[in-house]
Amino acid sequence: MPSRLLLATFWLAFFLSGPSLHVSSAQTPENELSPAIESPTPFSETSSAPPTAEPQLPETRPQERADDLVLLGELRNSVLVSPNNTDTRLKLSQALYRIGDLDAALDECRVAIKLDSRNARAYLQLGITLMAKQDGQAASIALMEALQLDPKLTQAHYSLGTVQYSLGNLPAAIQSYRRALDLQPDFPDARYRLALVLKLTNRHQEAVQFMESAAGSGIAQAQYFMGNAYRNGQGVERNLTVAIRWWTKAMEFGQPRAAESLSLLRRQALSPDQPEQRRTDAITAFRQYRRELWGDYPDAGRHNSNESVGVALLKGSQVSDGITALFVEALALGEAAHDELAQLYETGLDTSLAQFDTRILRCFTTTAADGFIPSKKALARIYGKGIGVTQDRQKATAMLKGLSKQEMQEVLDEIAAQ
Amino acid sequence: MLDASRLWRRFLGSSWLQAGTMGLLATALASGLWAPASTTFTALDWALYDFWLTDRAAIPISPSLLIVTRDPASEKEFGAGPWDRAILARLLASAHEAGALAIGLDDRIDHASQAQRGGAASDALLLETMSSAGPIVVVEGLDATLTSDTTITGHLSATTDSDHIARRMPVEAISDSKSIPAFGIALYEAFQRQTSPAKPSRSERDLTQLLVNYVGDGTISAFPTLPMSTLWNAIEHHENDRLTEWFTGKIVVFLPNPIAGGNTLLPTGQKVTNPVVHLHALNMLLTDNRLWQPDAAGRTVITLFVAWLVSWLLLHFQSTISLLFAGKAMATYGVLVLLSLALAHVVLPLALPLTAALLVLVGTTIWSHLTSHQRLQLLEQDMLRVQQEAAAVREALVLRETRADTLQEDLTAARVAIAQSAGQQEALTQSADVLRSQLADAQTQEEEARRKLEGLEHQLHSLQAATSKPVAIGNVELDRLQGECRQLGIVTQDASLLRLYRDLKKGAKSPLTILVLGEPGTGKELFARAVHRLSSRAGKTFIAVNMAAISSELFESELFGHTKGSFTGATTDRRGYFELANYGTIFLDEIGDLRLDHQSKLLRVLQERSFYRVGATTPTTVDVRIVAATNRDLQRGVSEGWFREDLYFRLTGLVFRLPPLRERPGDVPILAEIFLPEIADQMGRPAPKLSNEALRGLVEHEWKGNVREFRHCLEQAVALNDGLLLNKESLRLGSESIPPAVQTKQPQILPDPASDAAVLNCLRQRGFDMQATAQTLGWDRSTVTQRLKGLCFQALVETQGDKVRAAAMLAGDPSLTRTVELKLMDYYDHLIATIQPFATAEEALLDCKRRFKNLPDRHFRSVETLVRERFRTGRPASFGLKTGA
Predict the structure, then answer these.
(1) pLDDT in tens, A185-217
(2) What are phi and psi of B686, to 5 degrees?
(3) Looking at CA atoms only, how far is residue A60 from chain B in angstroms?
(4) CB-hemisphere CA count at 13 Å for B365?
(5) I need a labelling partner for B758 at 20 to 30 A (CA). Which of A286, B12, B390, B780 fits?
(6) Residue in A200, A267, A369 nearest the CB of B120
(7) How does B712-740 read in b/e, with b if 16+ C-beta sit within 10 Å?
(8) Do A264 and B97 touch (CB under 8 A)?
(9) What gap in Å lies between CA B106 and CA B126, rounded to an integer?
């Protein structure tokens, strides 16, 4: 039962890493095969096993499952009609695999191989199913058989890389991933995986190259690792600003670890307990990131370095970009953007931003927890005055913890005046 | 060969050496015994330690140690099997961020993660975290699929003793020729580097094994732990304050694997997993509650020492007290083991020393039994050797002394000659000088000889003192001899008498004639009976004949028997004692009282073992073992002529001299103890006891009549006393006591004035040492010499020039005969040399008169007789022919 749940989660991940899927499917003649091939791997990489606060697209699951069941019924009928058709059997096997009935899927694969022992795709499917059953040795034999029959089967190389890795044979895994990339250079998942294995064999520079291209292709996990690489100076020169850039991107793609890393860096910048050098480095990195953000929006123009790019974009009526930039800047400790968001929380902005938007509240809560004083003050006002939330003076007072007495008194006076 | 025997002698003489050898052997044997029964030995060796570990007060838990364990809630969240490494990465990162100083992770990162558990991404995350989170100690894996330069690997082994209990862990393990530290030690070292980088920590790496000081019952529950789920919730909710509170400044150990169901057995009886053992070791290091154990060499040395000590105690203190001491030593060692454990945390070996001590106990007892006899022999040999040397030196001394005296006389004579002849003065002066120098030389030599004698006597004395020890050493044998004696009715604990008995026992087996000498009442007949019972004739007849009690007329008839009609009253054939004792033993008591004519008759029987019955024409042959006894001095009898010499030599096949009771006062209490109940029983009265005073009186009394007198004294006391306690008065000892001077007085053999007898007596007492005698008498030495010279000449005259007899007569004691003989010969030779130049006896006597002017007149008469005899018989003098030499 848990394995089925896991499989269902694979699918979710699969949909998230859509681009790579399409690229690979373009190479393979049978579109139906590709989901099955991709399914086991992205699951483990992009969704970290500990449950996170933000479940991704939970509403899509029942629909997916219903579609699968319908397709399964159809395929079973087709097999009944023509039992000796290998393709039909393989499709049925894929459908069974997708719903998590691995034993049935294996049986169908074996029947297909019996019917056509020279069918590389049948072996590929067998290998993938065996991988899901955690039978690495058998899976690698099946995949090698598939490659012997069809050496250009990119998916087989890719899957074999994964199997080799789980068997602990890292050089073989690297070789398989490289073959897959030779056959299909535009294969971000293969790049990401190759980068990971290279990283684990301490070939950091090479790893960073592959990781960067995978990150560029939008793989959030790769972006997160890029951020880590820049923070730690592994394979690249240490650069916290670039690290912040990659983490922010990964966070936008829903990578929770990236958000945590950013949070940690914010705490470094704000906590008085931190060593001075660390603090200064973090503050400078955030400032530099906010400056460089202007480069992402060439239309925004530039007035002065301390100004918020979000505010500038809003002024230039680029509302959507403006709001995104405001959040990014606020999370990068931009006080101007923060003030603007605090204002927008109370007022709202046309249709793009509702009044008392929870995203703003969540953003403030996050930065306040990291010790960002403007956020603390803003939250104290929101809770103290009951703006869009139930009034809670106690919580408001608690929010002001860590501020100087004078500042605290000012805010409390302001709340009291209301 | 000589060296070997000397070494052996030295070895037997040194209890240190013997104890050392015994200790060495016992240690080797005990070590050898360990192999076949290692489980038992190991359990015994650690018995006290295990007992102490279980029952002592709990040791503290380090506040720096935080253990995060897997709990059911976390298993519910992350699954029951191995967890995604991303989870571990997050835990490690949080701990590091919250200020943990050193982190331990009970996980092997030797394999790649399955795709279902995060695959390469989770592995990369973990490695990344480990490299950034500072010193992290992980468990050594089987292979190195994933490697990180910054992680420290530690092994999780525990050393299981042969009784299957894990008390120690290896400090380092070797894997692929790399040395891997123990997990707990690696963590401790990482922590030390963080807390005090400047101060080098005490290194455990010098050891190979580390004894683990377990907290409580040794399980994980002995430590306060933090559940993984609680920690995870705190991380999820960003509760940084709590995280900081938990982690700051601590060693954090994550145990993501199940810790229940281990199979490592602890001394406390609990079963745990190996990481728990290492956690206890870590706590021990953190709280500095280390336990120490001596290494193999140290344990061997301790074992050797204990074995040596026990052996030495057994060898040094004989008998039961030594066993007591040895037992005490072993018990003390046991207490020492416990004390060192409790006070110094040092674990001393137990099984090996105690086994070795027990082996030593058995071995040493056997050894001392085996060697006691040999030791005794060696000491007796030593004594004999020194005695011989002393005798030799004594002879030399006599010669020197005599020569000095002679020279002195010559000097005096020369002086006289000077006075007489002034013309010859110069020549005489020269001669006097020569003589003086010779005298000085002789005196120096004499002094040297005297010193040497003193040294030797001292040595002999110390050896004699040492022989009291062999008595103790061989007391087992003496005890046995004493028991045997008791069976034969001989009551004694005197070592010399017991040794005499031992020799008698040996002699009894031989067919030799035995002569038992001793004062009346010393038990001659008892010993004679003992000879019979110990001989192969024990089953045959024993006939005791008192020779003094047989009338001279009936002597032959009694001893040899007679035929019918051989004389008036001989109505039947009668067998004599010798015939009656055929194939048995005949005991001829009071043989010294036998008349001379009877002696010759007896001699024939002894020679031929055949005799004629009175009136018989055919000889009767018998096979008889002869044991004779007397209280008279037969040797003197021979010299005085009342005992036949040939009979004397026939009888002295083996001679045993029984010591009088006064020479063995130690036997008095034991005799009293035996006699009193016997006497009381005979008289039908309750057995009385002796008061201490009475016993002292008995011991101090001169028992002239020896045991017989002693028994009579007791009989008298029992008969005349009604009480149950005999005191000194009731023994009536005082009036009969004879002064020892009278007792020791030698029979007077010379019909000369008493002063000569007194001088001779004194000389005898002093062993014919002139100087000593002179000191005793308060005389000048030359006076004593003159007296002895006179006595010698007188004795020579009386014995018609038989120097041996004369010497024996003067010496009294056979042991001094040789000394006297030497002196006598010297004096006589000097006399001959003096008269040599003269043509007539008269001239010679004139010169002698001058030379021996200090000689008393009565003795000069002897000189005169000798000189005249000399001139009468011509040269060589007949006297000179009868020397013993």
Answers:
(1) 888 999 999 999 998 888 888 899 999 999 988
(2) -65, 145
(3) 22
(4) 11
(5) B390
(6) A200
(7) ebbbebbeebeeeebebebbebeeeeeee
(8) yes
(9) 14
Q: Do A232 and B128 touch (CB under 8 A)?
A: yes
Burial B616-642 (b: 16+ CB within 10 A, else e): eeeebebebbbbbbbbebbbbbbbeeb
**Banded model confidence at residue A41, pLDDT cuts 50, 70, 90:** very low
Closest in B77, B86, B116 to A48, CB measured: B86
Which residues in chain B touch residue A257, judged by CB atoms under 8 angstroms apart?
Answer: 86, 90, 125
Mark yes or no for CB contact B128/A49 under 8 Å.
Answer: no
Question: What is the chain B residue with the closest CA to A44?
Answer: B118
Of A136, A196, A228, the CB nearest to B120: A196
Nearest alpha-carbon partner for B167 in B85, B272, B66: B272
Mean pLDDT value of segment A134-141: 89
What percent of chain B shows pLDDT beyond 70? Answer: 92
Residue A238 CB partners (closer than 8 Å, separation 6+): A230, A231, A232
What pLDDT, on the 0 to 100 scale, is given for residue B598?
A: 86
Provide the 3-class DSSP secondary structure of residue B340: helix
Q: What is chain A's length?
A: 418
- So where are chain A's domains? 2-42+61-186, 297-417
Question: B504 with B658: CB under 8 angstroms?
Answer: no
Please give the CATH architecture assigned to the domain spanning A2-42+61-186.
Alpha Horseshoe (1.25)
Nearest chain A residue (CA) to B238: A369
Sign of CA dihedral B631, B637, B642, B647: positive
pLDDT digits (tens, 9 = 90+) for B373-410: 888 888 888 888 888 898 888 888 888 888 888 888 88
Chain A residues closer than 8 Å to B118 by CB? 44-45, 48-49
Tell me: the pLDDT tens digits for A138-169? 999 999 999 998 898 899 999 999 998 888 88
Return the pLDDT at B879: 47
| Burial of residue B507, with CB atoms counted within 10 A of its CB: 0-12 exposed, 13-18 middle, 19 or more buried | middle
Could you state, in order of their start, the residue ranges of all structural domains in chain B?
2-55+294-370, 65-286, 372-477, 490-659, 662-733, 751-881
Burial class (CB in 10 A: 0-12, 13-18, 19+), B43: middle
Q: How far is B243 from chain A (nearest CA, A)?
A: 14
Q: Residue holding tokens 């399955």?
A: B114
Contact B85, B114 (CB under 8 A): no
Architecture of the B662-733 domain = Orthogonal Bundle (1.10)
Establish whether the linkage from the previous residue to B876 is cis, with ω within 30° of 0: yes
> For chain B, how many helices (H) and strands (E)?
35, 24
The architecture of the domain spanning B490-659 is 3-Layer(aba) Sandwich (3.40)
Order across the sheet with B585-589: list the strands: B542-546, B585-589, B625-630, B514-517, B654-657
Task: Specify the pairing of strand B178-181 against strand B159-160.
Answer: unpaired
User: What is the pLDDT at residue A64?
Assistant: 63
**Sign, CA torsion A37/A39/A44/A47:** positive
Choose the closest CB to A197 out of B120, B125, B128.
B120
For the record, the structure tokens of A252 come out as 């936008």
Within 8 A of B117 by CB-CB distance, chain A residues are 44, 49
Token pair, residue B93, equals: 């990162």
B200: left (phi over 0), alpha (psi -120 to 50) or beta: beta
Using the beta-carbon criterion (under 8 Å), do A50 and B78 form an inter-chain contact?
yes
pLDDT band at A127 (very low <50, low <70, confident <90, very high): very high
